[in-house]
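Hey team,

Sharing the Acid sugar phosphatase run so nobody has to redo it. Sequence (360 residues) first:
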Amino acid sequence: MSDGPRPAGAQPLVSAFDLVLLDLDGVVYLGDEVVPAAVESLRQVRDLGVAVQFVTNNARRTAGEVAERLRKLGVDAAGDEVVTSAQGAAGLLAQRYPAGSAVLVVGSSALVGEVRGAGLVPTDTADERPVAVVQGYAPETGWRQLAEAAVAIRNGADWIATNLDATLPSERGPLPGNGSLVAAVAAALDRPPDLVVGKPEPALFELAVRRSAARRPLVVGDRLDTDIEGANRAGLPSLAVLTGVTTPAELIAAPPAVRPSYLAADLSGLVTPHREPVSDEAGVRVGGWQVRYAAGVAELTATDADPGDGAGALTAADADPRTGIDALTALCAAVWRSGLPVRAGDRAAAAILSELGLTG
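Structure output:
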């Protein structure tokens, strides 16, 4: 599966890299709760001498506010280690328009501050004849702000979205994100934004890499259509974690443009050895699992006498937290290669397919 650097021997996966580019929502935290294993795993990453940058599509907070929030959750972070889509959008606006130009901001005070800091004049009304509309996520955004944006764009203003994430992960499940609010304006105007700054566009990753002068970056994210596709567009290896919005079924069905280099249950996958799939014409083996091509299916079976009792749980609290990930890695490698449907070949495989949500 991997198309990135490989750590030597039994070294942790992150030892092959000099920078980790981390998404936040669904990777480090969910709403106001830190993701299990995130604090200790990131501490170990830093102890190994690997730099960290937090790269988020969310334009709601300033970089300093994001860093402060992370510290309150127990995650070591500094403001210059945070890259937000608000920063990216403001930088783009400053490149395109003369200082002092009016820009209609639909979004948070953080986005307003970034626009002002770029030498432009934020406004909230189309009557100011803004040269551009920049739209980012803010929970207080309502009809009036969207209406002003629609009027300004119809009057000729360029339209820049910080990101098109349809949902935000939360402890209550996925909630409407900036992409859903952008879609409302797009429906009214019958056209998409002129530009999108955030992932999957590579600009935020490129900014973070320049800051760190890194040569071997690794992208870590939970969303295939933003984090992983963005990494692929930027030519960077990626690790997909299962703590956010992406399910095992979505991973197995992923088209080439959104396939990650590595899989992990959570951020502990950074500081544990990576088990590379071993493939041949007959199938794929990873850890205690193998997938064989037979009778038009990809059949999963256990190869060890007791591969985690067939439970294959996906949390760091299990005796071997990699068991479920080993099975999923084998299935992804096999299905991405063959395109065949999946079937359990024994009781252990049936149990783990059920836990992965791959039955039926």
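The chain has three domains: 13-57+200-271, 86-196, 278-355.

Ping me if you want the raw files.
A.
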